[in-house]
Design a protein that fits this description.
- The chain has 304 residues and is an all-alpha fold.
- The chain is 74% helix and 0% strand.
- α3 packs across α7.
- 38% of the residues are buried.
Length: 304
């Protein structure tokens, strides 16, 4: 079974709720950009692993697919919100239409996902759970936009809220659907994997020619490290950030820019911080009362 295709098909089916054909076509195009249903699969995997065997009926699995689709749509809406707020990822289709229209459609997708969650919420606890994670993620995004984090510790806490909350939401939704019980271990490892994923994103963003986070002077772990000015390369990079030049204007070429980045030590630092988060996640993941092969299923999906 192609789980990505099943989740995407389920997500696409809910667009029948949208009577305006132009809006529906736009939403379908947005869904079509996702090759892998990362968040939806997290929900499905946790739902299946935490369900007792006799509970895994055909109806249960069908309903779990719908729940996974709701979570995938929810995550898509947050992707669009994030890009609109950060003003980056300009190749995405929602960044190539008027921002007001994109905002309207992302709000519509978000609302549809909540309606789907409500319909699947047999225990009456899923919507409240998701809303709590939504609040944390939105607060984390606000802190990111307003340069709230001035220290490494504050930045890691912000990252837990902004990115960790979404992975925790997807994982815990599957758990709660199957057990009606909150599992702190799942939240702990999912949050740390979210931190690792965000650090990985920050790492890749350093090599983008648009240098969005650096240009915006966001207090990411990378910029906070560079600001400590351990060497001349750090000072050169800070000058680049301040003067607003392009990479070519400042360094002559992307290759020369990358060499300066490496000299600052920030690349090694981010790799270390990512591995610390991964190891914290694995320590909690391995505490699950499951056979090693089942834990490996979660691990293989979360570690990229």
């Amino acid at each position: 079974m192609n789980l990505d295709a099943v989740i995407k098909a389920s997500a696409q089916s809910v667009t029948s709720k949208v009577k305006n054909t132009a809006a529906r076509d736009r939403i379908l195009s947005f869904i079509g950009t996702k090759d892998h249903a990362f968040f939806g699969k997290l929900t499905y995997i946790h739902g299946m692993l935490f369900a007792v065997e006799q509970k895994r009926t055909e109806q249960f699995i069908e309903d779990l697919h719908k729940l996974a689709a709701a979570v995938e749509l929810y995550a898509l809406s947050f992707d669009i919100f994030d890009d609109l707020e950060d003003q980056d990822n300009f190749t995405e289709p929602w960044m190539q239409i008027p921002s007001g229209e994109a905002l309207n459609l992302s709000t519509l997708i978000y609302t549809i996902s909540l309606q789907m969650l409500t319909e699947a919420d047999r225990s009456g606890s899923l919507v409240s759970l998701v809303n709590n994670y939504s609040i944390n993620a939105m607060i984390g995004q606000h802190e990111d936009l307003t340069f709230y984090a001035a220290t490494e510790e504050a930045c890691l806490e912000m990252t837990k809220r902004k990115s960790g909350s979404l992975i925790a939401m997807a994982s815990m939704t599957g758990v709660m659907y199957s057990t009606q019980h909150f599992e702190p271990i799942v939240e702990e490892y999912a949050t740390q994997f979210g931190v690792a994923a965000q650090i990985d994103n920050d790492y890749r963003d350093l090599f983008h020619t648009h240098k969005s986070d650096l240009a915006a002077k966001k207090n990411t772990l990378a910029l906070l490290y560079i600001k400590r000015e351990f060497n001349d390369a750090s000072k050169e990079l800070l000058q680049f950030i301040e003067n607003g030049n392009s990479i070519e204007q400042q360094f002559g070429s992307l290759k020369a820019y990358k060499e300066v980045l490496h000299k600052t030590g920030v690349i090694h630092y981010l790799n270390v911080m990512k591995q610390i988060a991964v190891q914290k996640a694995l320590a909690n993941l391995n505490r699950l009362p499951f056979p090693a092969d089942q834990i490996e299923i979660i691990k293989s999906h979360l570690i990229k």
